[in-house]
Amino acid sequence: MSGLLAAAPVDVADEVLATTGIGSPLAWQIVSLLALLSALAVLVRWWYHQRKR
User: What keywords does the record list, in alphabetical order (predicted)?
Assistant: First the structure.
């Protein structure tokens, strides 16, 4: 009985990760792509302001 209770939170966590997609590689690819694009946007803005001076 205690073994079943100990395993329950892990099952719930796995189910939450599976339904939200946080644990999927695709979600991590999307997050890393967004981070890369935002870093690129910051770099382009900085370069534009340097050129404008």
Answer: Membrane, Transmembrane, Transmembrane helix
∠ CA 27-32-20, rounded to 5°: 20
Alpha helices by DSSP H, 1-53: 2-20, 25-52
* Residue extents of the structural domains in the chain: 3-52
Residue 37 to residue 41: CA distance in whole angstroms: 6
Distances (CA, A) of 53 to 42, 48, 50: 17, 9, 6
**Which of 47 and 2 is assigned the larger pLDDT?**
47
Nearest residue to 25 via CA among 16, 17, 35: 17
Report if pTM > 0.85. no
Q: Among positive and negative, which fits the CA dihedral 37, 41, 42, 43?
A: positive
